[in-house]
């Protein structure tokens, strides 16, 4: 199977944008009140499916030579996709490979959340634990993503769009982790540690992911300029 690199990148970006938008909408209290709990839970689940689809495409992109680092002509040249290739020394690939199972855990947790009348033990086992595991994997993936872009956590490069994307994803992952921890249900009260922090963390984290996904378009254009050959073999 072959695909144009520019189209693959746009597909990944839009899938992440839609998934993040679903999480944002579902996290708005007014929506949950107006639509009802079941619809709100379904919105989370649908958003998680978009995240998984985007993550799967991103992994394929990371392991398929010719889908990145192309110039203006190369971005429209169909490139064969590689659906599986083990390359753990590549930080970009490692970040994508760790992120994918994280999204699957979110699929599991959001699907389990559709169950009604579940007690604290069931919620913590089938909803909270997968959510926590997914958040941990997202956090690890984001950390590797930062290293893949800048080489060091303390390196600041605000002029680089990929650097901004990497740190938006890192902040979003931290917020998702905070949300996961706050959503633990206390058996003694059948209530979450902090519903406000759980919902707020998910909302703000999803906003970070949405902005990061939207920046994939200017990041692609920036990469094209870097790959564009100039007179004398020098880049502009």
Q: Rg from C-alpha positions?
A: 19 Å
- Separation of the first and last Cα atoms: 34 Å
Strand portion: under 5%
Helix content: 55-70%
Secondary structure: number of strands: 4
Principal-axes geometry comes out as elongated
Order of helices and strands: EHHHEHHHEEHH
Low-confidence stretches: 230-236
- By DSSP (H or I, 4+ residues per run), the number of helices equals 8
Q: Give the structural class.
A: mainly alpha
Mean pLDDT: 91
Largest sheet: 2 strands, antiparallel
Q: Could you explain how this protein is built, in words?
A:
The chain is elongated and about 60 Å long. Helix 1 runs antiparallel to helix 3, helix 2 packs across helix 3 (37-62) and helix 3 (37-62) packs antiparallel against helix 4 (91-112). The protein is mainly α and 236 residues long. Mean pLDDT is 91; it is low at 230-236. It is built from eight helices and four strands, in the order βαααβαααββαα.
Summarize the structure.
The protein is elongated and about 60 Å long.
List the helices and strands and how they pair.
Blueprint: E1 2-3, H1 5-27, H2 29-35, H3 37-62, E2 79-80, H4 91-112, H5 120-150, H6 161-182, E3 185-186, E4 191-192, H7 195-214, H8 216-227
Antiparallel strand pairs: 1-2, 3-4
Salient structural properties:
236 residues; mainly alpha; two-stranded antiparallel sheet; 3% strand
């Amino acid at each position: 199977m072959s695909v144009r690199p520019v189209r693959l990148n746009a597909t990944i970006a839009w899938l992440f944008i839609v998934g993040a938008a679903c999480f944002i909408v579902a996290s708005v209290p007014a929506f949950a009140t107006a639509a009802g709990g079941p619809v709100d839970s379904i919105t989370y689940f649908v958003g998680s499916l978009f995240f998984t689809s985007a993550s799967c495409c991103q992994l394929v992109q990371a392991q398929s030579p010719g889908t990145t680092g192309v110039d203006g002509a190369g971005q429209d040249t169909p490139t064969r996709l590689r659906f599986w290739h083990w390359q753990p020394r590549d930080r970009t690939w490692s970040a994508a490979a760790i992120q994918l199972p994280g999204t699957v855990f979110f699929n599991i947790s959001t699907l389990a959340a559709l169950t009604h009348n579940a007690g604290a033990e069931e919620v913590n086992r089938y909803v909270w634990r997968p959510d926590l595991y997914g958040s941990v994997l997202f956090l690890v993936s984001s950390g590797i993503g930062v290293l893949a872009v800048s080489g060091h956590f303390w390196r600041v490069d605000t002029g680089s769009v990929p650097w901004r994307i990497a740190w938006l994803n890192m902040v979003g992952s931290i917020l998702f982790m905070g949300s996961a921890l706050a959503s633990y249900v206390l058996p003694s009260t059948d209530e979450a540690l902090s519903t406000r922090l759980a919902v707020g963390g998910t909302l703000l984290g999803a906003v970070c992911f949405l902005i990061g996904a939207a920046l994939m378009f200017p990041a692609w254009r920036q990469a094209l300029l870097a790959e564009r050959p100039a007179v004398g073999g020098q880049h502009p």
